[in-house]
Design goal:
alpha+beta, 3-stranded mixed β-sheet, 3 strands
């Protein structure tokens, strides 16, 4: 069973880091910044919604942009970062 975001952070010694509590983004947590902010991969967030919730890519992008990205400023200066990649894996 895969670890959730909180378990990943604690396992790697990052207690007290703010993270997105929506379980659907757990697989998109890719690291922590130098100032202890959780970092999420935007493309992995989209992929999860498409694969697990049967969203189209457009629906997933709209959902994340409206329901997640817009909420980040309310989490404070130490809130999570959502990373947009310049390259494909």
């Amino acid at each position: 069973m895969a670890m959730n975001a909180e378990e990943k952070l604690l396992e790697n010694g990052y207690e007290g880091v703010k993270y997105l509590t929506d379980f659907s983004y757990d697989t998109a947590l890719i690291g922590v910044s130098h100032d202890d902010r959780a970092i999420y991969d935007y493309d992995l967030m989209v992929e999860w919604l498409m694969e697990e919730e049967d969203f189209t890519e457009e629906e997933a992008v709209e959902w994340i942009d409206y329901n997640t990205i817009r909420a980040l400023p309310y989490m404070g200066e130490d809130g999570p970062i959502v990373l947009h990649r310049f390259w494909e894996e």
